[in-house]
Amino acid sequence: MASNKDLNKANKAKKDEFYTMLADIEVELKHYRKHFKGKTVLCNCDDPFESNFFKYFAMNFNYLGLKKLIATCYQGSPVIGEEFEQLSMFEMDGETPRRHPYKIEIAEVIDANGDGAVDLSDVEYLLRSKKNALTLLNGDGDFRSEECVNILKNADIVVTNPPFSLFREYVAQLVEYGKQFLIIGNLNAITYKEIFPLIKDNKLWLGYSIHSGDREFRVPDDYPLEAAGYRIDEQGRKYIRVKGVRWYTNLDYVERHTDLELWKKYTAEEYPRYDNFDGIDVASTADIPEDYFGVMGVPITFMDKYNPEQFEIIGCADYTGKYGSDELGISKIGAKWIKKYREQGGKGHYTANMTSLVYYDNAGKACNTFKRILIRRRRVSWR
Question: Is 194 helix (H, G, I), strand (E, B) or coil?
């Protein structure tokens, strides 16, 4: 099973081609139908010959009431979608689009084969019969290029799986141009100093469907299968399972405003107070006490259950900067905690000048925390 360590290795090697499964796209997108009517959707990290995002929106073009669907790719596809395999021979002015960055625009999807449904054969017909729907790009297709930025400016909603290694830059661009979006990223991106302020200011939140476990992604044929969770199908296509992925969006959905049911009572014995900050530590989202209204440190998986009407996000303890540890007033760990931690055999990379949240348990043991978001209750929840 691919871990965050595996993802980091992939990032360093620029192995960012994780192709989202159609089933995962379908489960998530069904919660946002109202947002798409009359809109132009851009999939700007998606070769339509391989992308399940393009496939989903092409097949649901009329159902969603889309105005236009645009897909751009930045290189020849390392994965050939079986459904579009015959179209890989489609040529334009003597060039094969799959060997050159290109853009596909769809403004209409009709039931070409008369079977009463819109499916991939109809999309294939559209691409074959309207060559002006496919144009070669002048540049390399990078989403940061001037050419692709101009395409972005004309879109309403961006939906894709961007390169994990460029997630910060990708989100920054979407925010800069005021775009709505639904994208996939690493769970740990929550604590990026470029991402967390957007979450704190309620400009970005997690999507509906992926809240735990791992997900399967298709990878290129030359991708090294080093993780435990992988498979190769009968056609030789490679798949890996990746932990810690989430949908990130600024499209609202009803379930996001559902209260988290709280049932535990606060006791000083169960909820230790930080040694270097005025707040208590809550080890699990399920353990948030119903009768405590001070500041609490919770794991980042709390964001899976976050209701902005029920909780206020105070900040993040895992970086310095806006809403970070220095602004929050988290003190340095200090020599006393470090001494106790070492005496009890602790071998973690901690120094007295660090600002990680720490505490002593009931037995006096020096304890550290991992990736804490600081929150506070807004109001009483009734159940």
Answer: coil
CA–CA separation, 226 and 241 (whole Å): 11
Tokens 């070409």, located at residue? 112
Q: How far apart are CA 326 and CA 356, in angstroms?
A: 11
Q: Dihedral of the CA atoms 355, 191, 209, 168 (nearest 10)? A: -170
| Cβ neighbours of residue 355 closer than 8 Å, sequence gap 6 or more | 276, 317, 320, 325, 326, 330, 331, 332, 333
Q: Cα–Cα distance between 225 and 91 in angstroms, integer?
A: 34
Q: Is 2 exposed, middle or buried (0-12, 13-18, 19+ CB in 10 A)?
A: buried
* Mean pLDDT, the chain cut into blocks of 10 residues (383 residues total): 46 60 94 97 86 91 94 65 44 52 87 70 66 77 94 97 92 98 95 96 95 79 77 83 91 96 96 97 97 97 96 94 93 95 92 93 94 89 50
Q: Hey, how many other C-beta atoms are within 10 angstroms of the C-beta on 361?
A: 11
Per-residue model confidence (pLDDT) at position 16 = 64
Give the number of other Cβ atoms within 10 Å of residue 239's Cβ.
17
What are the structure tokens assigned to 78, written together?
């390392």
Q: Where are the strands (E) in the chain, listed by range?
A: 19-20, 40-43, 68-72, 102-106, 134-136, 157-160, 180-186, 205-206, 214-219, 230-232, 238-243, 245-249, 280-281, 296-299, 311-316, 358-360, 366-368, 372-377
Do residues 23 and 218 touch, judged by C-beta distance below 8 A?
no
What is the pTM for the complete model shown? 0.87
Distance of CA 51 to the CA centre of its chain: 17
Q: What per-residue confidence (pLDDT) applies to 218?
A: 79
